Amino acid sequence: MRLKNKIALVTGGGQGIGSGIAMKLAQEGVYVIVNDIHYENAQQIIEKIKQFKGNGVPYQADVTKSDEVEEMEKFVSKEIGDIDILVNNAGICKFAPFLETTEEVWDKIIQANLKSSFLCCQYFLPGMIKKRGGKIVNISSESGKRGSKGQSAYCASKFGVIGLTQVLALEFAPFNINVNAVCPGPIDTPLWEEMKTEFSVLYGLNVANYKDYFVKNYPISRMGTIEDVANGVLFLVLPESDYITGQSININGGAVFY
Ligand code: NAP
Questions:
Q1: Mean pLDDT for the stretch of residues 42-64
Q2: Regarding the domain with residue range 7-186+225-251, which homologous superfamily does it belong to in the CATH classification?
Protein backbone atom coordinates (compact mmCIF):
# COMPACT_ATOMS: atom_id res chain seq x y z
CA MET A 1 0.00 0.00 0.00
CA ARG A 2 2.82 2.38 -0.89
CA LEU A 3 0.55 4.65 -2.93
CA LYS A 4 -2.49 4.92 -0.67
CA ASN A 5 -4.76 7.92 -1.43
CA LYS A 6 -3.27 8.46 -4.89
CA ILE A 7 -5.53 8.63 -7.93
CA ALA A 8 -4.49 7.21 -11.31
CA LEU A 9 -5.92 7.11 -14.81
CA VAL A 10 -4.82 4.18 -16.98
CA THR A 11 -5.94 4.44 -20.60
CA GLY A 12 -6.68 1.29 -22.56
CA GLY A 13 -6.84 -0.56 -19.24
CA GLY A 14 -9.58 -3.01 -20.19
CA GLN A 15 -7.15 -5.75 -21.22
CA GLY A 16 -3.48 -6.52 -21.83
CA ILE A 17 -0.70 -4.35 -20.41
CA GLY A 18 -3.06 -1.60 -19.20
CA SER A 19 -5.14 -4.04 -17.16
CA GLY A 20 -1.97 -5.35 -15.47
CA ILE A 21 -0.82 -1.81 -14.67
CA ALA A 22 -4.27 -0.90 -13.28
CA MET A 23 -4.28 -3.95 -11.00
CA LYS A 24 -0.68 -3.41 -9.90
CA LEU A 25 -1.45 0.20 -8.92
CA ALA A 26 -4.67 -0.81 -7.14
CA GLN A 27 -2.68 -3.36 -5.10
CA GLU A 28 -0.59 -0.43 -3.86
CA GLY A 29 -3.70 1.42 -2.66
CA VAL A 30 -4.25 3.64 -5.71
CA TYR A 31 -7.81 4.56 -6.72
CA VAL A 32 -7.72 3.64 -10.43
CA ILE A 33 -9.86 5.01 -13.23
CA VAL A 34 -9.71 2.25 -15.82
CA ASN A 35 -10.40 3.80 -19.20
CA ASP A 36 -11.05 1.75 -22.29
CA ILE A 37 -12.90 2.10 -25.55
CA HIS A 38 -14.77 -1.09 -24.48
CA TYR A 39 -16.75 -0.37 -21.31
CA GLU A 40 -17.40 -4.02 -20.36
CA ASN A 41 -13.68 -4.81 -20.39
CA ALA A 42 -12.90 -1.87 -18.11
CA GLN A 43 -15.74 -2.91 -15.84
CA GLN A 44 -14.36 -6.47 -15.58
CA ILE A 45 -10.97 -5.15 -14.49
CA ILE A 46 -12.62 -3.00 -11.81
CA GLU A 47 -14.49 -6.10 -10.60
CA LYS A 48 -11.15 -7.94 -10.32
CA ILE A 49 -9.70 -4.96 -8.42
CA LYS A 50 -12.65 -4.97 -6.01
CA GLN A 51 -12.11 -8.69 -5.36
CA PHE A 52 -8.84 -7.85 -3.58
CA LYS A 53 -10.47 -4.82 -1.89
CA GLY A 54 -8.90 -2.30 -4.24
CA ASN A 55 -10.86 0.64 -5.50
CA GLY A 56 -11.60 2.32 -8.81
CA VAL A 57 -14.10 3.01 -11.53
CA PRO A 58 -14.45 2.05 -15.21
CA TYR A 59 -14.72 4.85 -17.76
CA GLN A 60 -15.47 4.41 -21.44
CA ALA A 61 -13.85 6.95 -23.76
CA ASP A 62 -12.04 6.93 -27.07
CA VAL A 63 -8.85 8.76 -26.14
CA THR A 64 -8.21 9.83 -29.73
CA LYS A 65 -11.21 12.19 -29.46
CA SER A 66 -10.68 15.48 -27.66
CA ASP A 67 -14.34 15.92 -26.65
CA GLU A 68 -14.35 12.47 -25.02
CA VAL A 69 -11.06 13.11 -23.18
CA GLU A 70 -12.40 16.50 -22.03
CA GLU A 71 -15.59 14.85 -20.69
CA MET A 72 -13.52 12.19 -18.94
CA GLU A 73 -11.38 14.86 -17.25
CA LYS A 74 -14.49 16.76 -16.12
CA PHE A 75 -15.98 13.57 -14.65
CA VAL A 76 -12.76 12.55 -12.91
CA SER A 77 -11.94 15.96 -11.39
CA LYS A 78 -15.54 16.52 -10.21
CA GLU A 79 -16.43 13.05 -8.96
CA ILE A 80 -13.05 11.68 -7.82
CA GLY A 81 -10.43 14.44 -7.71
CA ASP A 82 -7.40 15.56 -9.69
CA ILE A 83 -5.20 12.64 -10.64
CA ASP A 84 -1.66 12.02 -9.35
CA ILE A 85 -0.71 9.38 -11.95
CA LEU A 86 -1.44 9.21 -15.67
CA VAL A 87 -0.51 6.11 -17.64
CA ASN A 88 -0.93 6.66 -21.38
CA ASN A 89 -1.21 3.04 -22.44
CA ALA A 90 -4.02 2.87 -25.05
CA GLY A 91 -2.65 1.93 -28.43
CA ILE A 92 -3.00 -0.26 -31.48
CA CYS A 93 -0.57 -2.05 -33.78
CA LYS A 94 -0.64 -3.41 -37.28
CA PHE A 95 2.11 -5.06 -39.32
CA ALA A 96 2.13 -4.05 -43.00
CA PRO A 97 4.89 -3.45 -45.55
CA PHE A 98 5.40 0.28 -46.09
CA LEU A 99 3.90 0.40 -49.61
CA GLU A 100 0.79 -1.37 -48.33
CA THR A 101 0.33 1.04 -45.43
CA THR A 102 -2.68 3.12 -46.43
CA GLU A 103 -3.22 6.72 -45.34
CA GLU A 104 -6.17 5.49 -43.27
CA VAL A 105 -4.03 2.97 -41.38
CA TRP A 106 -1.27 5.56 -40.89
CA ASP A 107 -3.72 8.10 -39.40
CA LYS A 108 -5.40 5.53 -37.18
CA ILE A 109 -2.12 4.34 -35.66
CA ILE A 110 -0.70 7.82 -35.14
CA GLN A 111 -3.95 8.94 -33.51
CA ALA A 112 -4.31 5.93 -31.22
CA ASN A 113 -0.65 5.80 -30.14
CA LEU A 114 0.52 9.41 -30.20
CA LYS A 115 -2.38 11.86 -30.36
CA SER A 116 -4.06 10.02 -27.45
CA SER A 117 -1.06 10.81 -25.19
CA PHE A 118 -1.05 14.43 -26.38
CA LEU A 119 -4.76 14.81 -25.56
CA CYS A 120 -4.65 13.10 -22.16
CA CYS A 121 -1.61 15.14 -21.12
CA GLN A 122 -3.26 18.38 -22.26
CA TYR A 123 -6.43 17.74 -20.31
CA PHE A 124 -4.97 16.14 -17.17
CA LEU A 125 -1.75 18.13 -16.65
CA PRO A 126 -3.52 21.26 -15.33
CA GLY A 127 -4.90 19.23 -12.40
CA MET A 128 -1.42 17.91 -11.61
CA ILE A 129 -0.02 21.44 -11.78
CA LYS A 130 -2.70 22.50 -9.27
CA LYS A 131 -1.54 19.67 -6.98
CA ARG A 132 2.11 20.66 -7.57
CA GLY A 133 3.09 17.10 -8.41
CA GLY A 134 2.44 14.01 -10.44
CA LYS A 135 3.83 11.11 -12.43
CA ILE A 136 3.14 10.45 -16.09
CA VAL A 137 4.20 7.20 -17.75
CA ASN A 138 3.81 6.86 -21.49
CA ILE A 139 3.86 3.39 -23.02
CA SER A 140 6.21 3.57 -26.00
CA SER A 141 7.83 0.41 -27.38
CA GLU A 142 11.05 -1.26 -28.45
CA SER A 143 9.78 0.04 -31.81
CA GLY A 144 10.15 3.55 -30.39
CA LYS A 145 13.91 2.96 -30.19
CA ARG A 146 14.67 1.15 -33.45
CA GLY A 147 12.91 0.54 -36.75
CA SER A 148 11.14 -2.77 -37.22
CA LYS A 149 10.13 -4.29 -40.54
CA GLY A 150 6.43 -3.71 -41.34
CA GLN A 151 5.91 -1.09 -38.65
CA SER A 152 6.36 2.29 -40.34
CA ALA A 153 3.34 3.96 -38.73
CA TYR A 154 3.79 2.14 -35.41
CA CYS A 155 7.49 3.08 -35.15
CA ALA A 156 6.75 6.70 -36.12
CA SER A 157 4.09 6.88 -33.39
CA LYS A 158 6.27 5.26 -30.71
CA PHE A 159 9.38 7.34 -31.57
CA GLY A 160 6.99 10.30 -31.29
CA VAL A 161 5.92 9.23 -27.81
CA ILE A 162 9.57 9.37 -26.69
CA GLY A 163 9.95 12.89 -28.10
CA LEU A 164 6.76 14.00 -26.37
CA THR A 165 7.98 12.43 -23.10
CA GLN A 166 11.25 14.40 -23.22
CA VAL A 167 9.55 17.74 -23.95
CA LEU A 168 6.98 17.28 -21.18
CA ALA A 169 9.72 16.25 -18.73
CA LEU A 170 11.49 19.56 -19.41
CA GLU A 171 8.38 21.72 -19.28
CA PHE A 172 6.84 20.20 -16.14
CA ALA A 173 9.86 19.40 -13.94
CA PRO A 174 9.39 22.81 -12.22
CA PHE A 175 5.95 21.59 -11.09
CA ASN A 176 7.35 18.40 -9.55
CA ILE A 177 5.82 16.32 -12.34
CA ASN A 178 7.94 13.43 -13.66
CA VAL A 179 7.31 12.28 -17.21
CA ASN A 180 8.86 9.01 -18.36
CA ALA A 181 8.18 6.28 -20.89
CA VAL A 182 8.63 2.54 -20.92
CA CYS A 183 9.60 0.66 -24.06
CA PRO A 184 8.31 -2.90 -23.92
CA GLY A 185 9.50 -5.60 -26.27
CA PRO A 186 7.05 -8.31 -27.40
CA ILE A 187 4.58 -8.77 -24.55
CA ASP A 188 2.14 -11.65 -24.53
CA THR A 189 -1.23 -9.83 -24.68
CA PRO A 190 -4.47 -10.17 -26.68
CA LEU A 191 -2.96 -7.73 -29.20
CA TRP A 192 -0.72 -10.56 -30.47
CA GLU A 193 -3.75 -12.72 -31.25
CA GLU A 194 -4.68 -10.06 -33.82
CA MET A 195 -1.11 -9.48 -35.07
CA LYS A 196 0.47 -12.93 -35.10
CA THR A 197 -0.61 -13.82 -38.62
CA GLU A 198 0.61 -10.54 -40.20
CA PHE A 199 3.84 -10.84 -38.20
CA SER A 200 4.44 -14.45 -39.23
CA VAL A 201 3.83 -13.73 -42.92
CA LEU A 202 6.23 -10.78 -42.84
CA TYR A 203 8.97 -12.69 -40.98
CA GLY A 204 8.47 -16.01 -42.82
CA LEU A 205 7.41 -17.91 -39.69
CA ASN A 206 4.95 -20.68 -39.01
CA VAL A 207 2.13 -18.87 -37.20
CA ALA A 208 1.61 -21.79 -34.79
CA ASN A 209 5.18 -21.29 -33.52
CA TYR A 210 5.61 -17.53 -33.88
CA LYS A 211 6.78 -17.19 -30.26
CA ASP A 212 9.91 -19.24 -31.15
CA TYR A 213 11.17 -16.13 -32.95
CA PHE A 214 11.48 -14.32 -29.61
CA VAL A 215 13.07 -17.35 -27.94
CA LYS A 216 15.75 -17.44 -30.66
CA ASN A 217 16.35 -13.71 -31.14
CA TYR A 218 16.12 -12.11 -27.69
CA PRO A 219 18.92 -12.30 -25.08
CA ILE A 220 16.32 -13.22 -22.45
CA SER A 221 14.76 -15.97 -24.53
CA ARG A 222 11.05 -15.40 -24.19
CA MET A 223 8.21 -12.97 -24.75
CA GLY A 224 7.69 -10.48 -21.93
CA THR A 225 4.75 -10.70 -19.56
CA ILE A 226 2.20 -8.07 -18.58
CA GLU A 227 3.69 -8.28 -15.08
CA ASP A 228 7.17 -7.38 -16.45
CA VAL A 229 5.78 -4.09 -17.79
CA ALA A 230 3.54 -3.35 -14.79
CA ASN A 231 6.56 -3.70 -12.47
CA GLY A 232 8.49 -1.12 -14.53
CA VAL A 233 5.57 1.30 -14.49
CA LEU A 234 5.13 0.85 -10.74
CA PHE A 235 8.76 1.83 -10.16
CA LEU A 236 8.26 5.00 -12.23
CA VAL A 237 5.29 6.13 -10.13
CA LEU A 238 6.84 5.38 -6.72
CA PRO A 239 8.80 8.04 -4.78
CA GLU A 240 11.92 5.85 -5.32
CA SER A 241 12.07 7.21 -8.90
CA ASP A 242 11.61 10.90 -7.99
CA TYR A 243 14.98 11.87 -9.55
CA ILE A 244 14.17 10.19 -12.88
CA THR A 245 12.44 12.15 -15.62
CA GLY A 246 12.46 12.28 -19.41
CA GLN A 247 13.68 8.67 -19.64
CA SER A 248 12.48 5.85 -21.85
CA ILE A 249 13.18 2.63 -20.01
CA ASN A 250 13.59 -0.59 -21.98
CA ILE A 251 11.63 -3.63 -20.81
CA ASN A 252 12.53 -5.91 -23.67
CA GLY A 253 14.71 -8.78 -22.55
CA GLY A 254 17.91 -7.03 -23.63
CA ALA A 255 16.94 -6.43 -27.26
CA VAL A 256 18.03 -2.76 -27.23
CA PHE A 257 20.74 -1.13 -25.11
CA TYR A 258 19.95 2.60 -25.53
P1 NAP B 1 -4.25 -4.64 -26.18
O2 NAP B 1 -4.22 -5.99 -25.58
O3 NAP B 1 -4.88 -4.46 -27.51
O4 NAP B 1 -4.96 -3.64 -25.11
C5 NAP B 1 -5.11 -2.27 -25.41
C6 NAP B 1 -6.50 -1.82 -25.01
O7 NAP B 1 -6.61 -0.41 -25.36
C8 NAP B 1 -7.59 -2.54 -25.82
O9 NAP B 1 -8.71 -2.78 -25.01
C10 NAP B 1 -7.89 -1.51 -26.90
O11 NAP B 1 -9.13 -1.68 -27.56
C12 NAP B 1 -7.82 -0.23 -26.09
N13 NAP B 1 -7.77 0.95 -26.95
C14 NAP B 1 -7.24 1.05 -28.19
N15 NAP B 1 -7.44 2.28 -28.68
C16 NAP B 1 -8.10 2.98 -27.74
C17 NAP B 1 -8.62 4.29 -27.68
N18 NAP B 1 -8.50 5.14 -28.70
N19 NAP B 1 -9.23 4.71 -26.54
C20 NAP B 1 -9.38 3.85 -25.49
N21 NAP B 1 -8.95 2.58 -25.52
C22 NAP B 1 -8.31 2.14 -26.61
O23 NAP B 1 -2.77 -4.05 -26.30
P24 NAP B 1 -1.46 -4.27 -25.39
O25 NAP B 1 -0.62 -5.28 -26.04
O26 NAP B 1 -1.85 -4.42 -23.97
O27 NAP B 1 -0.75 -2.86 -25.62
C28 NAP B 1 -0.90 -1.77 -24.73
C29 NAP B 1 0.12 -0.70 -25.08
O30 NAP B 1 1.43 -1.25 -25.01
C31 NAP B 1 -0.05 -0.14 -26.48
O32 NAP B 1 0.26 1.23 -26.48
C33 NAP B 1 1.00 -0.91 -27.27
O34 NAP B 1 1.44 -0.21 -28.42
C35 NAP B 1 2.09 -1.01 -26.24
N36 NAP B 1 3.05 -2.10 -26.51
C37 NAP B 1 2.61 -3.38 -26.61
C38 NAP B 1 3.53 -4.39 -26.88
C39 NAP B 1 3.13 -5.84 -27.02
O40 NAP B 1 3.94 -6.64 -27.51
N41 NAP B 1 1.92 -6.24 -26.60
C42 NAP B 1 4.88 -4.06 -27.04
C43 NAP B 1 5.28 -2.75 -26.93
C44 NAP B 1 4.35 -1.76 -26.65
P45 NAP B 1 -9.10 -2.48 -29.01
O46 NAP B 1 -8.83 -3.90 -28.66
O47 NAP B 1 -10.44 -2.24 -29.59
O48 NAP B 1 -7.97 -1.85 -29.82
A1: 98
A2: NAD(P)-binding Rossmann-like Domain (3.40.50.720)
